[in-house]
Every structure is written in C-alpha cells, then in structure tokens.
Amino acid sequence: MFDLILKGGTLPDGRTADIGITGGTIAAIEDLSTAEAGEVIDASGDLVSPPFVDPHFHMDATLSYGIPRINASGTLLEGIGLWGELKQVMQPDEIKARALEYCDWAASLGLLCIRSHVDTCHDSLIGVEALLEVRKEVADYIDLQLVAFPQDGLYRDPTALQNTIRALDMGVDVVGGIPHFERTMADGARSVTALCEIAAERGLMVDMHCDETDDPHSRHIETLAYETQRLGLQGRVAGSHLTSMHSMDNYYVSKLLPLMAEAEVAAIPNPLINIVLQGRHDTYPKRRGLTRVKEMQAMGIDVGWGQDCVMDPWYSMGTGDMLDVAFMGLHVAQMTSPDEMRRCFDMVTNVNARIMGLEDYGLRVGAKASMVVLDAGNPIEALRLRPDRLCVIAKGKVISRQSRNDARLDLPGRPASIRRRHSAHS
Ligand SMILES: [Zn+2]
C-alpha cells in the first residue's frame, strides 16, 4: 500500500513506469498495476521528470521590476546601480513577500530546488534575514540554498567582508563573490583567494559571479580554478556566467579548460540574462556573451543552465520556468542535435542538482519523492512546447495541479482540438 502512485508516465530516459511513493520517498519504480495506494494519478503518455533545479537566482531582487525606476541602458552596470538605490529603501516584509510570491510561481512550474544569491553589502543584512526566513517557510516544498554575495565587491565596499562573514555565521550556505567588479584585476584575484579560503575553513561550497563581462582579459576563473585545487575544494566550486570566455583568445582557452576540468570547477551560464546584458558595448558584429558551453562539456566540465533574474533591475521578463532558460540556452549555444537537446533538459534537472550537491534528488528508489508531470511526450518535446505542468509533487505531496489546456479549433474538416504535440523525437 503506497500513499500515492503516479501511473504510466514516460521517464526522461524513455522508459514507461509507475512510481510508488510512501512517506515522502520514492518506494518503487516498476509495474504497479496490481498495487494499492491512497491516491492514483494517471500520467499515461505524459513526461514525468525529477523537479527542475535552478542553480543561480537572486530572490532578494525578484519581482522588483520598475522600483524605483527601470534600467534604461539595459546594462549590467546600470542594473547594479539601480539595485543599489532599491536596497536603500527596501523593507524586510516586502523582500519576503516578493520572494514567497516567486516561490509560488516556481512550485507551480515544478522548480523545487533553487540556489539564490543574497546581497551581503548592506550593514543591516535585511535581505539575508528575509531569505533565511523564506528558506524555512518553503522548506516543505522548495529546497532553497543561499549564497552570501558581496554584490558591491568584497574590497570595493568597505564593510562587505565583515558583512559576508556575518551572513555565513547567520546560516547562509555557500560563499559567493564578484571579482570582475573589484576596482583592479589584482583586487579581483585577491577577493577570489580570500573567499575560497573562507569556504575551505568552514567546509562550504563556493559559487562566484565570475568574469561577467565582454572583456577577454577578465580571467578570474583561472584564479578560481587554481585556488580550488590549492585548497582541496574540488567538486564544491562553481563559476557563474563566465561570459568573458566568449571573447577570450582560443590559445588561452585551450590552457584554461583543462585547468577547470582538473579542479572540477562547474560552470553556470545564465542564457536569458547573458544574451540581453552582454554585447551592449558592441556595434556589429555584436557578441552573444554566452560562455563556451559545448567546449567545456567536451572536456568533462559540469555545465548547468541558471535563470539569474525574473523581473528585477537586470531583466524585465521571466516566469521561473527553467524550460525557458534551457530553450534560450539551446538556441544561443546552438545545441540542436538530438543528444544536445536532451542534454539541455538534463542540465536544468540532474546536472544542476549535482552542481548544488543535492544528494536525495532524482527518479530512483530511495530518493526524495519530488517530481513534475509535463504535458509532453519526452524531454525534447518539453523544450519545444514549454508545456503546462499537469501535476507537481514535492516530498510526497501533490502541491500543484493544472488541467490540460487544449486549444479548441473551429475550422471545417479539421480536428476540434489540438495540443501541438508531435511524434518526432520520441
Ligand atoms: Zn547573478
């Protein structure tokens, strides 16, 4: 007797199976046609996936678009300036309310694991306090991992170092940084060393905004990989964005990627954001500003797609749908072969979970019973359609349901309703 059986779904690897859930854990993945359960949900013909995972977000800034004004130039630097104005006037309750509203959106889309940076460059640390409360309040349905992020620069901002350490003392999970925003390359490199040493002392993971610029000489990823090896942090460090790599000299990159692979440093490009923020100083040709995704993957480096922003000083769009993120990544990185398209889906599920160090994740017996049913036949169709999430299960409980939303046609001799599904790529 199971608490819940999800019947007949198609798993991302193409198998069809029933999933039996007991006490918040996956208890069986097999033919359960004769088994009994408190509730049975029919997922026949639909894709059942482990939940979506976002390894890069800013939940203290989300849903603040237009407050106190919009980003007129559309650049990263105006966004940082605008955020600086906003954080002087933000109230803790507002931050919490916006974050919780975003978590509702995420839950309805099957996005159940999120790594959010939280700004530590404010002496009051109200963002940190608010997101620590949010982490607790959503714990039954979203695993929220927080990164202490000195947005204004560890050395550029006079109190950033002490406030970042205070945030870690308060219970923030991961050490962040922003070396390319320091005043000099030397200060940037020093900040990477200092922050990696803090992580090593405390046994924490590291995730830095790194080289988010079109300047090919921004090479802080080299220092990050070097310090990862020196301090024995292999497998616990990620470099987010890495957009300068797009513009780097090919010979230099041929030396850099093996260093990253040896150090087991993961990469988190954020395609929705990087395609709009980067290249703003170019005329034509205009660079895409996305890091070298396929080249890193070919070297065995873990690369996961991150979302970064939804309706904030840097980005006016977004819903929290990781399929939008993967869809943009697929286009910008030209990942269009069937294997590459499937990999894009894997990046917003399994690869991101690995980067975040989530141990009880996945569709396997003994893992946490969190999953999402999509109105699609397989991962490639899910990317193409970015369809409704028919059912979302978090830690054994159904937390969101959506009815199938077929279009009704009124055309003589044509079908009465359509779902835009197609049997290709099955
Ligand atoms: Zn970011």
From TrEMBL:
- Provide ranges: composition bias, Basic residues: 417-426
Q: Please provide the Gene Ontology terms (biological process) for this protein.
A: cytosine catabolic process
Ranges for domain Amidohydrolase come to 39-399
Which Pfam families does its entry note?
Amidohydro_3
Alphabetically sorted, this entry's keywords are: Hydrolase, Metal-binding
**Where is the segment annotated Disordered?**
404-426
Q: What is its EC number?
A: 3.5.4.1
Q: Which InterPro entries match?
A: Amidohydro_3, Metal-dep_hydrolase_composite, Metal_Hydrolase, Metallo-hydrolase_Enzymes
Query: Has the keyword Metal-binding been applied to this entry?
Result: yes
**Molecular functions per Gene Ontology:** cytosine deaminase activity; isoguanine deaminase activity; metal ion binding
NCBIfam families reported in the protein's UniProt record: PRK07572.1 (NF005748)
- From the Swiss-Prot or TrEMBL record, give the protein name: Cytosine deaminase
Q: Which organism is it from?
A: Sulfitobacter mediterraneus
